[in-house]
Amino acid sequence: MKNVTDSFVSLVHRPFAGSFGFNTDILATNPINLSVVLGVLIFFGKGVLSDLLDNRKLRILNTIRNSEELQGGAIERLEKARARLRKVEMEADQFRVNGYSEIEREKLNLINSTYKTLEQLENYKNETIHFEQQRAINQVRQRVFQQALQGALGTLNSCLNKELHLRTISANIGMFGAMKEIID
């Protein structure tokens, strides 16, 4: 510490006339040089540094303000998009429910119309079967009647001779005459 004090004293009592030289004593010159440089920097650099810091502060504040505005706009657009999404989802659900209802309705209508068509076809089938049965029965009756008639005619022709034939005709005419008298 003594050297530092001696340095300050020697600077004060040092004659200025004479030679110009470098002081190589680091401990004596460094704190003085540093204090002078810092003083000059603070005195002259304070305004520049203050301006730089103010400009930087303004840019940061503007960036924050712009970011907040963009965030507000983004939040607003997000809310609108969410509202549209909810609306579209509700419409989709409604279409889905209506679609399912319509599908069920169409399915029931198709089933009902198919049952009706099947019933009609069953009725047509039964009517056709009944008609064919009646036609077959009528054909069998006609054949049986024809065969019976042919058999009866054959029997009559073989059993009847002329005399028996004339007697049968006379008896029938007599019956018709008696019936006529009763009716009159």
UniProtKB/TrEMBL annotation:
User: What's the protein called, per UniProt?
Assistant: ATP synthase subunit b, chloroplastic
Looking up InterPro entries in the UniProt record yields:
ATP_synth_b/b'su_bac/chlpt
Q: Which UniProt keywords apply?
A: ATP synthesis, CF(0), Chloroplast, Hydrogen ion transport, Ion transport, Membrane, Plastid, Thylakoid, Transmembrane, Transmembrane helix, Transport
Source organism: Cedrela odorata
Transmembrane regions listed in the UniProt entry: 32-49
> What gene name does this entry carry?
atpF
Task: Write down the Pfam families for this protein, in alphabetical order.
Answer: ATP-synt_B (PF00430)
How the protein sits in the membrane? Single-pass membrane protein
Entry's Gene Ontology molecular function annotations = proton-transporting ATP synthase activity, rotational mechanism
Query: What do we know about how this protein assembles, alone or with others?
Result: F-type ATPases have 2 components, F(1) - the catalytic core - and F(0) - the membrane proton channel. F(1) has five subunits: alpha(3), beta(3), gamma(1), delta(1), epsilon(1). F(0) has four main subunits: a(1), b(1), b'(1) and c(10-14). The alpha and beta chains form an alternating ring which encloses part of the gamma chain. F(1) is attached to F(0) by a central stalk formed by the gamma and epsilon chains, while a peripheral stalk is formed by the delta, b and b' chains.
**Family as reported in the entry's similarity comment:** Belongs to the ATPase B chain family.
Additional free-text comment from the UniProt record = In plastids the F-type ATPase is also known as CF(1)CF(0).
Fetch the HAMAP family from UniProt: ATP_synth_b_bprime (MF_01398)
Subcellular locations according to the entry? Membrane; Plastid, Chloroplast thylakoid membrane
GO cellular component terms, alphabetically, are:
chloroplast thylakoid membrane; proton-transporting ATP synthase complex
Q: What does this protein do?
A: F(1)F(0) ATP synthase produces ATP from ADP in the presence of a proton or sodium gradient. F-type ATPases consist of two structural domains, F(1) containing the extramembraneous catalytic core and F(0) containing the membrane proton channel, linked together by a central stalk and a peripheral stalk. During catalysis, ATP synthesis in the catalytic domain of F(1) is coupled via a rotary mechanism of the central stalk subunits to proton translocation.
Q: Main site of residence?
A: membrane
